[in-house]
Amino acid sequence: MKKKSRNDMRVVRHRRLRRTLSGTAGVPRMAVYHSLSHIYVQIIDDDLGHTLVSASTLEKTVQGGLKGTCNVETARVIGKLAAERARAKGIESVVFDRGGHMYHGKVKALADAAREAGLRF
User: Fold this and answer.
1) Of the four listed, 54, 71, 110, 116, which is most buried by Cβ atoms within 10 Å?
2) Tens-place pLDDT, residues 5-48
3) Residue 1 falls within a domain, yes or no?
4) Given phi > 0 = left and psi -120 to 50 = alpha, else beta, which region is 55?
5) Domain holding 102: CATH number?
6) In this structure, how many other beta carbons lie within 10 angstroms of the beta carbon of residue 24?
7) Do strands 50-56 and 39-45 pair parallel, antiparallel, or not at all (unpaired)?
8) How many domains does the chain have?
9) Which residue range is the domain that position 107 belongs to?
10) On the CB side of 121, how many CA atoms lie within 13 Å of its CA?
């Protein structure tokens, strides 16, 4: 048998999470993904299949004052930015989807920053 890669196992965990996790118009899903080089956040209404808000390290406005594109400090900036954009669109609470990643490090920093910026989850 071939051993599954770390990303394959992450996908398995994410599918297991998504069986019970779903976003609605009232309480959308905040999906977090990080690759080795970037961090991405989307706030999604799963009923319609629309992305309501997004933020990532690929944006030119975000890259200016950062030392790297995928570290804990950057995750805090992205979490705060996503929360501010969500609050501007009238989104107060979300369901947090960690994307199969463990809840520590970058994912935890992003979640904490979003909570500090006013999102409830």
Assistant:
1) 110
2) 999 999 999 999 999 999 988 999 999 999 999 999 999 999 99
3) no
4) beta
5) 3.30.420.100
6) 12
7) antiparallel
8) 1
9) 6-116
10) 29
